[in-house]
Amino acid sequence: MTLPSATCSNAVLALLVLTRSVQAATVTGSVELSGSALKGDSSGAVVWLEPMDAHQAAPTRRERMIQKNKTFTPHVLPISLGSSVEFPNLDPIFHNAFSNFNGQIFDLALYPPGKSRTVTFRRPGVVRIFCNIHPTMSAVIVVVDTPYYAVSDRSGRFTLPDVAPGRYRQNVFFERATPETLSGLAKELDVKGSSQVLPPILISETGYLPTPHANKHGQPYPPESESPYTVH
Predict the structure, then answer these.
(1) Residues spanned by CATH 2.60.40.420 within the chain?
(2) What is the pTM of this model?
(3) CATH architecture for residues 57-145
């Protein structure tokens, strides 16, 4: 008996989904910091696996980075290439989120409490975010061209679910590490089986020196005082 074509297609699709679920691995690991200024907090390290055998496009998502209490939250946000990030203003004052880094240059201009603006990120790279009014506000968006990425929690742990078997390049970003340190953490690995635990990733903060950033015009911020954009 010959099955209808639609039934065959559904059966093949179900088989492919089942095969992928059986083959996909849950990859877990942890980061360990040395020379850290924040004892007991190993959050904010982004780990991603870049496929070496064939490109695997990641689904795009819509994420949020809120502005509240003169703070961007989350401070570190990994996203897949082509995803969008909303920047809602939940403060009772105006904000002006911007980035003048090559990863993605944008300027959302001034907008009031209760409003939100969105940026779509179309280039992989590290995008450092600031506010043109409040010099203490900063954040990082890490745009990766892979579906397999995660950010460490306070204990340093991270999980990469549903990783297809294959050969990968492991990459790491951490805000308080030098480019040389991060380059030395890149390595190749094979993913196979249903679960895999990576060796601890040791990140040194030695040599990192925070530097003041300029406003969106490339000028120093004026002395911070009561914001003229406060809504009374």
Answers:
(1) 57-145
(2) 0.86
(3) Sandwich (2.60)
- The Cα 147–Cα 134 span in angstroms is 34
* Gap between the Cα atoms of 218 and 25, Å rounded: 46
Return d(Cα 229, Cα 158) in angstroms, integer. 39
Look at residue 42 and give its three-state secondary structure. coil
Other CB atoms within 10 A of residue 183 CB = 11
Asked if 121 and 105 touch (Cβ cutoff 8 Å), the reply is no
Please tell me the distance from the alpha carbon of residue 156 to that of residue 151, in angstroms, as a whole number. 9
Q: What is the pLDDT along the chain (232 residues), one digit of tens a residue?
A: 454 555 544 543 443 344 444 589 999 999 999 987 778 899 999 999 999 988 888 899 999 999 999 999 999 999 999 999 999 999 999 999 999 876 789 999 999 999 999 999 999 999 999 999 999 999 999 999 999 999 999 999 999 999 999 999 999 999 999 999 999 999 999 999 899 999 999 999 999 988 889 999 999 998 765 556 655 5
CA atoms within 13 A on the CB side of 113: 11
Give the CATH architecture of domain 25-56+147-218: Sandwich (2.60)
Residues pairing with 97 in the sheet: 131
CB 128 within 8 A of CB 101: yes
